[in-house]
Each structure stands twice: as C-alpha cells, then as structure tokens.
Amino acid sequence: MESSKQKRCRSSVVETIEAPLPLVWSILRSFDKPQAYQRFVKSCTMRSGGGGGKGGEGKGSVRDVTLVSGFPADFSTERLEELDDESHVMVVSIIGGNHRLVNYKSKTKVVASPEDMAKKTVVVESYVVDVPEGTSEEDTIFFVDNIIRYNLTSLAKLTKKMMK
Amino acid sequence: MAGICCGVVGETEPAAPVDSTSRASLRRRLDLLPSIKIVADSAVAPPLENCRKRQKRETVVLSTLPGNLDLDSNVRSENKKARSAVTNSNSVTEAESFFSDVPKIGTTSVCGRRRDMEDAVSIHPSFLQRNSENHHFYGVFDGHGCSHVAEKCRERLHDIVKKEVEVMASDEWTETMVKSFQKMDKEVSQRECNLVVNGATRSMKNSCRCELQSPQCDAVGSTAVVSVVTPEKIIVSNCGDSRAVLCRNGVAIPLSVDHKPDRPDELIRIQQAGGRVIYWDGARVLGVLAMSRAIGDNYLKPYVIPDPEVTVTDRTDEDECLILASDGLWDVVPNETACGVARMCLRGAGAGDDSDAAHNACSDAALLLTKLALARQSSDNVSVVVVDLRKRRNNQASS
Predict the structure, then answer these.
(1) Nearest Cα residue in chain B from A96
(2) Which domains, from first to last, does chain B contain?
(3) Angle in degrees, 0-180, between the axes of helices B2-10 and B35-44, rounded to the nearest 10
(4) Under an 8 A CB cutoff, do A100 and B280 touch?
(5) Does B52 lie at the interface with A, CB-CB under 8 angstroms?
(6) pLDDT tens digits, residue range B324-364?
C-alpha cells in the first residue's frame, strides 16, 4: 500500500563487450563475487545460500555487500531471484542498504553479439526502482544508469585482461 | 593532557571574534560555543554513541604518525643547527633570526568511526633551502575508495614540490603548485595500484586490496591540502574538501576554500566539461563523489580535476598558528572554534620561550581538536596538523 504511492522509474543499459559470451557470463553469474567487476563494491559475504544449488548460486541466496568509502552508501543487501544458465539471465533484488534505492529489481541478460557471435557479447541490464523522496526521476535514472555503466565498463576491462 | 585541560578551564577568555568577511564563517553549521564548554566536552569525553544508523560503531584507534619519533628528533636536530647558524653568522639580522627556527608542530590522525584509515599526514620541516631561507612542508591527505592514493601523496608530494620549487622563477607559487599536483595525479594514475613494475620494489608497507581487484583502482582518490611555510610567507595549495585555517590575533582566516560540487564556480566548471552534479546524500559529481577536485579518481575525469587553488599569505607578528585538517574535523568544528582551542593551548605554553613547551602545546592542540571532533560525532577519519607560527626570541634556552 505504502509503496504504491511511491513513483517508480525504469531504464536499461546496454554494453557490448569484446569477449566471448561464456567468459562474460561466468563473471556476471557469480552472485557471491560482485567485487570482481562492480566498481564500488569493496567486499561481499553470503548471508544465506538459498535452496538447491552450490553456495551463492541458488535461487533466494542473499549477499551482504560492503561498498567503498566516498560512495554515497556503505552497504547493500541483495537477493538472487533468478539465475538461468541456459538463457543467460540473472535477476537480482535489493532488499536493504543505505543507498536510498528502494524496491530495486534488475534483470541482466547476456547474448552473443550478432556482429561476431564468437568474440563479442552484448550485456543488457534493465531495472525498476522507486524514485527517492526529494530526488527527480531524471536524476534517479542518471545515477543508477551511471553505476551500471561503470560496472559494465569494468567488466569489459576485466575480460579483456583475462584474455591476454 | 589533564593538566592542560585544568589550566585552560581556569581561564576566562572571551570567544574569538567572528570574521564577517570569511566565507567559512557564513557556511558554518554550528554556533560558536564558549571555550569552557568546549574543553568540558573534550575533558569529559562522553561515550561515543552510534546515532547514525548508516555507521557501524568501531573502536576509536588513536595513532600518531609512525614516524613521529623521527620527527621529534629531526625537529630537535634542526633547532640546534638553526641556533648554531644564528650564533656564528654576523650577517643575520635580528629580524631574520626570529624566523630561522623550524616551527613547532603537533599532529594526530585517528580512524574514528570509519571502517578504515584512509587519511595520511606529511610533515617535512626544512625540506628545502631557497634564497637562504628554510622552507617547511606540511600536508594532509584524506583518501576515499582506498588508502593507497593518500599514502602515495604522503610519500611523494613533498619531493615533487621540492623539485618544482627549485626551478621556479621568482615567486610563481601558483603555477608551481598546480604543476606539482598535476604531476602527483599523473604519478598515481600511471602506477597500476602499486603493482610491481619492471622489478621495482613495492613502496606500500601493506598491500591494499586494490591489487587483487583492479576494477576498483579508478575509483580511488584523495584530497590534498598542503602548506609551504617560509620565513615570510605561507603558501597553501588545496584540492578537495580538507582545509587550512590561519589563526591571527584570535581571528580565524581560511586560507583555502572547500571544493564542493555545488560551489557555484565548480558547478559551472563541471557542467561545462559535460558532467553533472546530483544530490544523492549531498551534492555529488555524477551522484558519486562529494568533492569536485581530487588527486586520482580517473574515472571521473575531466569533471574531477587535480588542480589546486593556491593562496599566498604574508606572515605577520600577529600570526599564532596554522591548522591543516581533513573534513572529519571541519564538518563538526567551525574554523573559529578550532582557532580558539589552538590559541588556548599555545597561550598555556607562554610566548614560545621554551621550545619543548611550544612543541607540546601544538601536540595538545592537535589532540584536543581531534577529541573534540570525535566527541561531536564526526563520522570520518580525523587528521590534524597544528603549526606554531609565533616568533621565537633569540635567547631561547637550550632544551
């Protein structure tokens, strides 16, 4: 009821990475190691492993993320809603933290690039989130898009380095 | 410490007059409190409570500079050299000899409530001789994202400045300091988080986790507030939101202006560069960084630049001390209050007759200011440097 009053916004960020899909996906799908490519993550600990699957891979897994200093938040609590290794889709919700991102849910989809199926990968991250009080929808989208873009840029650099 | 507090409590000193022309005064968030109240706050040292939910409570770790012992012996050694020079030289006039001593200093750096210590302090008395004058270097660096940029500034900036000043024509301090900061920024950018290159030895004592997770390298930076003190001038170069304040005859004179993203001229510069300032827990460049200038932070260039703003101030007989500190202090202690606290400590040591007493007074001032910041719930690392700028008499007793 309360959340229905809150204005929501949505956006998508697309990044083409010069690396094969299996490599890109192997990093993205590691729910327990977001610091491998997420720029502002300092460390991550798993709170619960969820049902089924290996640690950090099961649906319902929850991670506690510690963010770097200087960033406008200290921590974030996130849950893995969906992880599909066949369609290369990952859905993550943010369920806590002091970043002002409430009711945040993102879907990341990875596909081989039509340009070069074997060597290029397209990552699409789409999300919905409440617009925080006192902030405009435009600013909210700019902020979140920015964070995602930085993360995907780091991912591109990382995979490039790994292929050397 | 208790002795100093008791002594100060007995004094009935009026609050320092507010400088209405000071921009810092206009921005101050806290009322100027009576000096006795301030001391009481610090002396009692109320238990630190975790008022802000976003901060985890950490044990306060008080640490002086690891090189503090060397610093003491260096200062003592320099004093002897200075006195010897004065004694043996007939050409030195009385006025000049007043300024030839190395200034007494005090410094503290504490982690406070933050999870990690990312501040660094750099003290280099007599780091440069120029035109027969002793130059002294003092710097405070408040890192974010990780500590290695601030550590690198501590290790290298004084040497970079020295090399630039040695080739400086006349007194072009602004150009020289801008060049120095830009070189420092380039240096931290080129070294991939201190990874071993060409067999070069790693300079960091403890490897920071950036070595293992290189994506975070770009998001590391530091403020830098630096002062070069000469017999006649105080040169302050500032990049970021640490600050330098001069205490002159009881009045707090800011020698730097904080680089906040919503400062009108900084906001315009960022927008003209194609960037954007978003209010997300305060004004932030691209919603991420709460300062508009920093050493490092490559991912935010060209919006966040390493160029310092430089001020050159002539020294006067009324100068009491210079305070350099990170925003862990200035966010909770107004300039005037800091000035008043330092002044009380220095007065307690008399007019600088005894060099050891003056040195202790500076240390007490730095420590007292740090405790005051923590008592006022500062949520950041706190680093403070207090430099005694008072003249010293020729008949100074040997310690």
Answers:
(1) B54
(2) 104-190+207-257+319-388 (3.60.40.10)
(3) 160
(4) yes
(5) no
(6) 999 999 999 999 899 999 988 987 876 555 566 776 799 99
